């Protein structure tokens, strides 16, 4: 009898402990709530200028921030913000049409995800048409395709495949939004098959990813694209999808490793496994988002990962300065087989590579 009572009491205490851990992601001090932080960053984005490539196209980092601001606006039911974000896009149909990225590169094509997200909000067919053109052209081989691009297409993958880990956000985000808009499984299947191939080719035994196969460094934001791409894809995949188990395996393996490398202060470093490197905000925010998503979806143990996500969020917030710019953001970084190169990378305040994942985290922390 005493044993049964003990086990019953233990079960109650365990349940209460689990509830307490889930609350780790539901209650934050004033000034650090996702509602406050998200509002600061989203309205700051609305007021900002376009971020362009040298060739005068909208930069993918702006698209990422725009998507994040929309996600936050939807979560908070901020109709004013949604309208402002929609109005910011409207000139692309007229006087700013020249800023639209061409449909010939993985970083350019992900622009379509923004148009498709706006379609889901407004049901304006102009967004749907534009977004699907970007999504479909990732799998439509151009006439001037290079031999390597043809080889990828012949295998059923996107001709824009590069085996850079960035692609597992850039490709999957637009295909994912196309699936949400159309319900056509071809978009989901494309993204999933591509993700499985990248996992098989690039994930290391410890669950992390080198910046490139010939550059053996675990660069934070590089790994961050994988950390975000996997849960975003898993969220929409039916449980019986043939590729779901493989992607979940890769995701859980990465999350376990990331938790081990989280610094005592809650951050992750510019090179994840190098304790003498500086804390970098964009990669930290991406990993935090992946933890939040996993806890909220029930994929990650809340007892273990909710406190880690909370610690990271509270560590991230002080990096936002008085102008609502995220600081300590590594600038755009190409691969280089040189450890010092990563250590010496310049850091920008307000770089949209950092603003975007902060917005993703704010939106993910609000509600389900």
Percent strand equals under 5%
Spatially, the strands of the biggest sheet line up as 1-2
* CATH 2nd-level architecture: Alpha/alpha barrel
**N-to-C order of helices and strands:** HHHHHHHHHHHHHHEHEH
Termini separation (Å)? 40 Å
Binding site for substrate: 166
GO molecular function, one term: hydrolase activity
Pfam families: Glyco_hydro_88
Signal peptide: 1-20
Question: Would you mind describing this structure in some detail?
Answer:
The protein is 60% helix and 1% strand. It has helices spanning 2-22, 34-47, 60-76, 79-89, 106-109, 112-122, 125-137, 147-154, 167-182, 185-202, 220-236, 244-261, 281-297, 302-316, 339-343, 352-365, and strands at 329-330, 347-348. A two-stranded antiparallel sheet has the order 1-2. The radius of gyration is 21 Å and the shape is globular. The chain has one domain (29-140, 150-365): Glycosyltransferase (Alpha/alpha barrel), CATH 1.50.10.10. The two termini are 40 Å apart. It is built from 16 helices and two strands. 44% of the residues are buried.
């Amino acid at each position: 009898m005493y044993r049964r009572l003990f086990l019953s009491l233990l079960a109650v205490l365990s349940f209460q402990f689990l509830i307490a851990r889930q609350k780790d992601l539901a209650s934050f001090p004033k000034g650090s709530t996702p509602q406050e932080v998200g509002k600061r960053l989203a309205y700051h984005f609305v007021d900002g200028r376009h971020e362009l490539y040298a060739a005068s196209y909208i930069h993918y980092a702006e698209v990422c921030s725009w998507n994040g601001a929309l996600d936050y606006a939807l979560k908070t039911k901020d109709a004013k913000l949604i309208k402002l974000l929609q109005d910011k896009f409207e000139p692309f149909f007229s006087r700013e049409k020249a800023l639209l990225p061409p449909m010939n590169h993985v970083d350019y094509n992900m622009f379509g995800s923004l148009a498709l997200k706006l379609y889901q909000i407004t049901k304006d067919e102009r967004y749907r048409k534009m977004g699907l053109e970007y999504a479909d052209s990732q799998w439509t081989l151009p006439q001037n395709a290079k031999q390597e691009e043809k080889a990828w297409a012949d295998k059923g993958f996107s001709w824009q495949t590069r085996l850079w880990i960035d692609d597992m956000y850039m490709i999957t985000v637009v295909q994912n939004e196309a699936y949400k808009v159309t319900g056509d499984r071809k978009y989901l299947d494309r993204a999933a098959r591509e993700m499985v191939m990248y996992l098989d080719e690039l994930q290391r035994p410890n669950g992390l990813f080198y910046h490139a196969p010939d550059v053996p460094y675990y660069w934070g934001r590089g790994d961050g694209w994988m950390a975000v791409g996997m849960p975003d894809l898993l969220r929409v995949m039916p449980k019986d999808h043939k590729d779901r188990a493989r992607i979940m395996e890769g995701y859980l393996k990465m999350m376990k490793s990331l938790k081990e490398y989280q610094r005592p202060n809650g951050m992750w470093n510019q090179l994840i496994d190098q304790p003498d490197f500086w804390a970098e905000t964009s990669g930290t925010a991406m990993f935090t988002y992946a933890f939040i998503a996993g806890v909220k979806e029930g994929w990650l143990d809340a007892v273990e990962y909710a406190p880690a996500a909370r610690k990271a969020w509270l560590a991230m917030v002080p990096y936002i300065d008085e102008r609502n710019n995220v600081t300590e953001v590594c600038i755009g970084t190409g691969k280089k087989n040189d450890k010092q190169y990563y250590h010496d990378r310049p850091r920008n305040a307000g770089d949209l590579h950092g603003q975007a994942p902060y917005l993703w985290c704010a939106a993910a922390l609000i509600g389900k």
